[in-house]
Amino acid sequence: MRGVASAWPAYTLWRGPGGLQHLKKLAGAAEIQVMCSDSGVYHGDMRSHSPTCCTFAEFLDSADPTASTSQQWGGQQVYLAQAPLRTSAPLPCSLTALQQDVGMPPCLKGQAVSHVNLWMSTSGARSSLHNDPYQNLLCVVRGRKAVTLFSPAMTPWLYPMPIWGESPNHSAVNFAAPDLQQHPLYAQALLGKQVAVLEAGDALFIPEGWWHQIDSAGVTMAVNFWWDSPLAALAGTPADAYCLRRLMGSLLDSRKQQLLAQVMPFHFHTAAQAGEPHGPALDPLPLRRVLLALAEHFPRSLSVLLMHGLTPAAAELLTGRFEAADAQLVEQGMHQEQQSFYSRLYSVVDDPQQVLEVMLARKEEFAAAICKQLIQEVLGVPYA
């Protein structure tokens, strides 16, 4: 969104050497914490942090070419990240005075903004690839930022840090020098990335869960606004366990369809063209006729197929087609034909219940393998 912050006092007052002096007058004595780096790259893993406390005025001097700061910072670059101007807590923040120069974007009218933060680089900065548990509006006041974005759908390709760790919302990929042997799927993510370049006055909406990595050029100042999404309203409630299972089930269903599409890409392509929402385009009713012909003419072969010949993926595929056919027949009120099919199909074995147990076991084996894979990919939890 172009020009969202261009009407703020900060857009004019924070620029140039006079802007640094203005900020010192507002909050120069405030105690802040900055991150230090030899390279200007700042990783989200807490083990990579080198936090240092100083006054806001001392930090601003690092952006002033006329000030001598090399001795104080030891030749390192410094970055001010997520310095609160306002939070939902009743106590004032150390940099609250800066908020008088910051406006509320009209697009946030009616939103319960919970955090307003200042981000500032004095000689450029590269922040690590991560996502946030908030809706986010990032507004550049001075300088330029390039924001690289990845959809939440790419999470398995971005190798999230373990869910139990201190930085579960960060990627394990070294974005500045990715090792594609260690993280080969990251190459796939790069094909789908989006990049937004923000000049002073511009704003970018980053939805909750979207992965982003930000490069700041030179002296750059930005203010961002966080507020809760509808999903956040469900978090921290007795529904947490239910929501986790519900979302995991949705992921499981999606991954099943992706894997089956790899097995039968032609049929899945046909299904998508036909607008069929579930499963491959193996027309279920003709498939039933083929199976009934096998039951009549090759009963032993069909018995061996059902009892011993189905892989887990094949069992998922076949029963999915059965369910699709059942739905069609029920809609047409053909309940008798539905029951007749199963009676004739299972007549090739001595114990029809045993066939059902075998097919369900194969389906569950297929789903369990996918579930283990998702736990590792999405939660970063190794699953032996």
TrEMBL record:
<protein>
    <recommendedName>
        <fullName>JmjC domain-containing protein</fullName>
    </recommendedName>
</protein>
<dbReference type="Pfam" id="PF13621">
    <property type="entry name" value="Cupin_8"/>
</dbReference>
<dbReference type="InterPro" id="IPR041667">
    <property type="entry name" value="Cupin_8"/>
</dbReference>
<comment type="similarity">
    <text>Belongs to the JARID1 histone demethylase family.</text>
</comment>
<dbReference type="InterPro" id="IPR003347">
    <property type="entry name" value="JmjC_dom"/>
</dbReference>
<feature type="domain" description="JmjC">
    <location>
        <begin position="93"/>
        <end position="242"/>
    </location>
</feature>
